[in-house]
TrEMBL record, chain A:
Belongs to the class-II aminoacyl-tRNA synthetase family. Phe-tRNA synthetase alpha subunit type 1 subfamily. The gene is pheS. NCBIfam families: pheS. Residues 65-92 form a coiled coil. Its main location: cytoplasm. Residues 109-340 form the Aminoacyl-transfer RNA synthetases class-II family profile domain. InterPro entries: aa-tRNA-synth_II, aa-tRNA-synth_II/BPL/LPL, Phe-tRNA-synth_IIc_asu, Phe-tRNA_ligase_II_N, Phe_tRNA_ligase_alpha1_bac, Phenylalanyl-tRNA_Synthase, tRNA-bd_arm. The lineage of its organism: Bacteria, Bacillati, Bacillota, Bacilli, Bacillales. This is Phenylalanine--tRNA ligase alpha subunit. Pfam families: Phe_tRNA-synt_N, tRNA-synt_2d. Mg(2+) binds at residue 256. It is an enzyme of class 6 (ligase). It catalyses: tRNA(Phe) + L-phenylalanine + ATP = L-phenylalanyl-tRNA(Phe) + AMP + diphosphate + H(+). It comes from Salinibacillus kushneri. Its cofactor is Mg(2+).
TrEMBL record, chain B:
GO terms for molecular function: ATP binding; catalytic activity, acting on a protein; magnesium ion binding; phenylalanine-tRNA ligase activity; transferase activity; tRNA binding. Binds 2 magnesium ions per tetramer. Belongs to the phenylalanyl-tRNA synthetase beta subunit family. Type 1 subfamily. Transmembrane segments: none annotated. This is Phenylalanine--tRNA ligase beta subunit. It comes from Salinibacillus kushneri. One of its GO terms (biological process) is phenylalanyl-tRNA aminoacylation. The keyword Aminoacyl-tRNA synthetase applies. The gene is pheT. Residues 40-154 form the TRNA-binding domain.
Length: 344, 810
């Protein structure tokens, strides 16, 4: 019987090795380990054996069953694994084909730039103030120390609608309006972005409509050195930490002293090149200490309060930053232009 | 203004500073130098030659063979200039010379004759045609007879000069002259200043006996002075003066005109020389022109005048347009012998108006417009007399005929050193401030750090403490100011809710696949009537028109963003960009007055336009062309973003839009905009492919959005149950109507409804459609029982069948 069991074991094991699929394995399991299987049969014939041999044979039979069962399980696992691998192999795809693209849009470069500048000043405690694009002569000029007939009005030839109404030529009237609302009490810390208009013929460097962003800070004891410090951190954050700034005296009717700010030329690092007209510097913005007449007209006591203001053109900044050659690109909305700045 | 450094050197020592460094210092002082140009850079071997003989070339009609003495040798030079002649002193470029533009002069042969150099015209030496004296315009330049042969022509012609191109701000009228710049540069460099001295020998006759001056309107002309110079001999002015005028950008004419121009540049005081014998009377009367009066100016133009223009007359006719241009009748000519030199102060606004009206902006008018130094008017006139005496043989009469009602106010500014430092953020010592004021040549008193400054009359811009703040800061150096950050009240800053929502709209539109566009607010008139939203139309707006537009294309303020946005779409299509999705968030300008008197109402709108392919996955055979529902989905997503409930779309007919594919957008039953396809006929007109647009009233949407606080609803704990229902109905019944009925009938457990299929065609009766809904029920309090769901379903089916003669499909 011992031999028979050993024989059965070898037979089953070799069948397991040869088995090709789960169905065959199942048949082997039923035929060898089932109730009608040969091992059960061997056990049934154990009555004929001497008493002392019975437990030995019984144990042996169990061992054989166990071995066969284990092998069956192992084989099953192997077959499962193979089937899975075959399935995965069949499912593989060409990962180099293009992906399923969602339609994607993006911001206008000017909006993006304006938001960046807004956020920078919000971080310094500024609020964003807005105002009408069709302005009263008073807010656009007079409240900014530009009375009628002032020669500096020539500097910004304007689109008038009536004698008293015009398309604003800068966003400064928002400053005048905001100061007026504060009724002589500081601080006023605002940044004013928006569209402005001038009587220019559109060409590569002129646009009758463009954007501006201006800032105003009025409080007790605001110093000119504060203006310098604030402009310096603005320039470094927008243009890069390695850029230097230079302030030059200039003239604007609404500020005194007035300054123009240059940044060092990125192209030549101050050595002088064609981009900076060989000066090493590029003009970025105008600024100054708020003229006492402007403070007074808005209801502030110019003995107690002082302030600074600055203004810049996002188009100019964008053109310098990205080397854009024609200002009209900002308004023709060529999608080949717009899409270049989605990640700007 | 063009600043000649050779000229400036007469007043300030510039030996130890390079032109580039000087330019930078001037710029940092507040007068921007736009360019630095050295005339004769690299010019050498260019000398004065004497033409000993000049004979026609035997083989060429237009060439002359000249023997030229250049001092150390004699050269044969072939010259083609029409004006070359024996006995002239000319500019000779010797072999080895270099001309502007890099041309090298070599020994050569011309038609068989040796040529050892070149006799030059001024153009060939790099001088702009427009500055060259008339007589030398078409030929070589000829030196005065007393010029030394062999001397350096580059120096004699001032070609070694460096010119700075200055951009002078309107407040710095003082810098508009050589003397003004001398003050400026002396202050910046902390140097001595040497100004010309005016000394004139007078003859024993009085100007007042020759001429009287009467001014009718002292406001327009507070000072008028007339000098008389007799026995003038008109001729060329000295070469050095011509050189300086050329350097300043002025063409030399004759000694008298050159002298007035020279003083104009030197003092910044415009003068005018009248031929007194042609003046026509012994009286100068300054008055307003009469409306309709005419006068012919020096340029030969007849000018129509009006009462805003100030006229210099002889008591009857106009002799000059004050401060702008002289008249042809009293022009200085070759035979002029007696000159009336006008030195006056004209009101800046009058001159500005006349110069503008007649398009005659000149070196003179610009200076009057900005305001000349009232204390140097007379001196400048006398300086001209001095030069006429010296260079035109003139005899200057005693005295001056004048009208003088000019009150020159002394501007006094007081301040404490402490105030200056507090406002600038600096620690400048009192001594340093005093030094700065000395450099500026301002008179002042100082006691206990308190300053009293008496601003000089040339600096009319110094009126208040802030002006002195700037003066001190700019001489001290803006570079020297420290960098500080404001120490005042600190506040948080930030965006308002509305500003945040506007940014959210931008982000949403972009992630929905549209590109932000920016178009012009000013558009052509016909566009103001197009694509106007019906809510705006109901306001009966009158498009705002510019008084003086630059072009018809941008003459009116827009009443819809769409016309210009569609132009942008068309622009792209014309450039083979077929898939375009643009939006713009911006204002329209609503005015309701016939004659506008107040600012229009600026309303914020969101407009979008899309055309072409929306999704294109070619290799996956999936291509979605833009249609109504693509854009509607964008709008629905936006309303969802803003948490706006109760929005609906209703079929709408409006001009320029497709009658069957346009809808009004309603929020809480109020019209907030429209969506749809552009009418095919309009598309064709505008060269557009099928284009879908929407236009929304953002002010209203944000109002609704801001009413919503944004409340929290707990996540349901009990499962929901879905049921599908398909009905056959008449094809014209809108889905929305059936959904409204289902919503109502499905209460209280109905949670939401989705349309999941629309079918028409085979197996369907004509005029019918099948529409399938997926409805979902939920009870927030408990798990729904089958009977409850069945009951709700029955209720819905019955109501829909009754309401629409619908049939439930099996
Ligand atoms: Zn550079």
């Amino acid at each position: 019987m011992r031999e028979r069991l050993e024989e059965l074991k070898q037979e089953a094991l070799s069948k397991i090795v040869e088995a090709k699929d789960t169905k065959q394995l199942q048949e082997i399991r039923v035929s060898y380990l089932g109730k009608k299987g040969p091992i059960t049969e061997v056990l049934r014939g154990m009555g004929k054996l001497p008493k002392e041999e019975r437990p030995v044979i019984g144990q042996l039979a169990n061992e054989v069953r166990e071995v066969i069962s284990k092998e069956l399980d192992a084989k099953q696992e192997q077959l499962d694994q193979e089937a899975l691998e075959a399935k995965l192999a069949e499912e593989s795809i060409d990962v180099t084909l293009p992906g399923y693209q969602q339609p994607s849009g993006g911001p206008h470069l000017l909006t993006k730039l304006i938001e960046d500048i807004e956020d920078l000043f919000i971080g310094m405690g500024f609020e964003v103030a807005e105002g009408p694009e069709v302005e009263q002569d008073y807010y656009n000029f007079e409240a900014l120390n530009l009375p009628k007939g002032h020669p500096a009005r020539d500097m910004q030839d304007s689109f008038y609608i009536t004698e008293e109404l015009l398309m604003r030529t800068h966003t400064s009237p928002v400053q005048a309006r905001t100061m007026e609302k504060h009724k002589g009490k500081g601080p006023v810390k605002i940044i004013c972005p928006g569209k402005v208009y001038r009587r220019d013929t559109d060409d590569a460097t002129h646009s009758h409509q463009f954007t501006q962003i201006e800032g105003l800070y009025v409080d007790e004891n605001v110093r000119m050195s504060d203006l310098k410090g604030v402009l310096n951190s603005f320039a470094k954050q927008i243009f890069g930490q390695n850029r230097e700034i230079r302030l030059r005296p200039s003239f604007f009717p609404f500020t005194e002293p007035s300054v123009e700010m240059d940044i060092s030329c990125k192209m030549c690092h101050g050595e002088g090149c064609s981009v900076c007209k060989h000066s090493g510097w590029i003009e970025i913005l105008g600024a100054g200490m708020v003229h006492p007449n402007v403070l007074r007209m808005a209801g502030f006591d110019s003995e107690i309060y002082s302030g600074f203001a600055f203004g810049m053109g996002p188009e100019r900044i964008a053109m310098l930053k990205y080397g854009i050659e024609d200002i009209r690109h900002f308004y023709t909305n060529d999608v080949r232009f717009l899409k270049q700045f989605h990640h700007a | 203004m063009l600043l000649s450094l050779n000229w400036l050197k007469q007043y300030v020592d510039l030996d130890d500073i390079s032109p580039d460094d000087l330019a930078e210092k001037i710029t940092k002082g507040g007068i921007e130098v736009d360019g630095v140009e050295t005339f004769g850079e690299g010019l050498k071997n260019i000398v004065v030659g004497y033409v000993k003989s000049c004979e026609q070339h035997s083989n060429a009609d237009k060439l002359n063979v000249c023997q030229v003495d250049v001092g150390d040798e004699e050269l044969q030079i072939i010259c083609g200039a029409p004006n070359v002649a024996t006995g002239q002193k000319v500019v000779v470029a010797k072999p080895g010379a270099r001309l502007p533009g890099g041309m090298k002069i070599k020994k050569t042969k011309l038609r068989g004759e040796v040529s050892n150099g070149m006799i030059c015209s001024l153009q060939e030496l790099g001088i702009d045609q427009k500055f060259i004296q008339k007589e030398f315009e078409d030929g070589i330049f000829v030196f005065p007879e007393d010029t030394e042969v062999g001397s350096n022509a580059v120096d004699l012609l001032n070609l070694n000069d460096t010119i700075l191109d200055l951009d002078i701000t309107p407040n710095r009228a003082d810098s508009f002259s050589m003397m003004g710049m001398a003050y400026e540069v002396a202050a910046i460099l902390d140097k001595d200043l040497h100004l010309p001295e005016v000394e004139v020998n007078r003859i024993d006759e009085k100007a007042e006996d020759y001429v009287k001056v009467r001014v009718e309107d002292a406001d327009l002309n507070p000072y008028y002075g007339a000098y008389i110079v007799k026995n003038i001999k008109i001729g060329p002015s000295p070469l050095w003066m011509q050189n300086r005028l050329i350097a300043a950008g002025i063409r030399p004419i004759n000694n008298v005109v050159d002298i007035t121009n020279y003083v104009l540049m030197e003092y910044g005081q415009p003068l005018h020389a009248f031929d007194f014998n042609r003046f026509g009377s012994n009286e100068v009367v300054v008055r307003r022109a009469r409306n309709g009066e005419t006068m012919t100016t020096l340029d030969g133009e007849e000018r129509n005048l009006q009462k805003d223009h100030l006229l210099i007359t002889n008591g009857k006719e106009g002799m000059a347009l004050a401060g702008v241009m002289g008249g042809v009748d009293s022009e200085v000519k070759d035979d002029t012998s007696t000159i009336l030199v006008e030195a006056a102060y004209f009101n800046p606004l009058t001159v500005r108006k006349a110069a503008k009206d007649h398009g005659l902006r000149s070196e003179s008018s610009i200076r009057f417009e900005r305001g000349v130094d009232p204390n140097r008017v007379k001196e400048a006139g006398l300086r001209a007399c001095q030069l006429m005496q010296k260079y035109a043989g003139g005899e200057v009469l005693e005295g001056i005929a004048e009208f003088d009602e000019q009150a020159v106010e002394q501007s006094i500014v007081e301040f404490d050193a402490k105030t200056i430092n507090r406002r600038l953020g600096t620690a400048i010592s009192v001594e340093e401030m005093k030094n700065i004021l000395h450099r500026l040549r301002f008179s002042f008193e100082e006691a206990d750090a308190h300053f009293t400054v008496y601003a000089p009359s040339r600096r009319g811009d110094i009126q208040i403490v802030e002006d002195m703040l700037e003066e001190i800061a700019r001489i001290y150096g803006y570079d020297q100011l420290p960098y500080t950050l404001p120490e005042g009240t600190s506040n948080a800053g930030g965006l308002t809710t509305k500003q945040k929502l506007k940014r959210s709209i931008h982000r949403y539109m972009q992630s929905a696949g549209l590109n932000e566009a920016m178009t012009y607010s000013l558009t052509k008139e016909e566009n103001t009537a197009k694509f106007m939203d019906q809510y705006i139309r109901a306001l009966q707006p009158k498009a705002v028109k510019l008084a003086m537009p630059m072009s018809e294309a941008h003459s009116h303020l827009r009443l819809s963003i769409l016309p210009e946005l569609l132009s942008s779409v068309q622009y792209n299509l014309a450039r083979r960009q077929q898939n375009v999705a643009l939006y713009e968030l911006g204002s329209i300008y609503v005015n309701k007055e016939e004659n506008i008197s107040k600012q229009p109402d600026e309303q914020l709108r969101l407009s979008a336009a899309i055309t072409g392919i929306w999704v294109n996955q070619q290799w996956q055979k999936e291509v979605k062309t833009v249609d109504f529902y693509v854009l509607k989905g964008v709008v629905e997503g936006l309303l969802d973003l803003l948490d706006i409930q109760h929005a609906s779309f209703e079929s709408l007919k409006m001009e320029q839009m497709h009658p069957g594919r346009t809808a009004a957008i309603l929020v809480q039953d109020e019209h907030v905009g429209f969506i749809g396809q552009i009418h095919p006929a309009v598309q064709k007109d505008m060269d557009l492919t099928d284009t879908y647009v929407f236009d929304l009233d953002v002010d209203r949407l944000l109002e609704v959005a801001m009413e919503n606080e944004g409340s929290y609803e707990p996540i349901p704990r009990y499962p929901s149950v879905s049921q599908d229902l398909a009905f056959v109905v008449d094809e014209e019944i809108p889905a929305k109507r059936i959904m409204d009925v289902i919503s109502d009938a499905g209460k209280p457990y109905l949670k939401d409804i989705q349309v999941f299929d629309i079918y028409q065609g085979e197996h369907m009766d004509a005029g019918k459609k099948s529409i399938a809904f997926s409805v979902r029920f939920q009870d927030p309090e408990a798990t729904l029982k089958d009977e409850q769901v069945e009951e709700a379903r029955k209720q819905i089916v019955n109501t829909v069948e009754d309401s629409f003669h619908a049939v439930l499909r099996g």
